[in-house]
Amino acid sequence: MSGREGETGGQLAPLAIEPSTFRTLGHGLVDSIADFLESLPKLPVAREEAPEQLRALLDRGPVPQEGIAPEEALLRATKLLLDHSVFNSHPRFWGYITGSPAPIGMLADLLSSAMNQNGSSWHVSPMATEIERQVIRWTADLIGYPADTGGLLVSGGNMGNFIGFLAARAAVPGFDLRRKGVSGSQGRLRAYASEETHTWLQKAADMFGLGTNAVRWIPVDREQRIVTFELRKAIESDLRSGLVPFLVVGNAGTVSTGAIDPLIELAALCRDKRIWFHVDGSYGGYVAMLPNAPPDLAGIAESDSVALDPHKWLYVSIEAGCALVKDRAKLRETFHYQPLYYHSFVEPPKDTRINYNEYGPENSRGFRALKVWLALQTAGRSGYERMIGENIRLAQELDHLVRETEELQPGTQNLSITTFRYVPRDLSEGTVNQEVYLNRLNAKLLARLKRSGEAYISHAIVGGTLLLRACIVNFRTTSKDIAALPELVKRIGKELDVEMRPTDLTVDVVADSPGGTSP
Ligand SMILES: Cc1ncc(COP(=O)(O)O)c(C=O)c1O
Question: pTM to 2 decimals?
Answer without folding.
Answer: 0.94
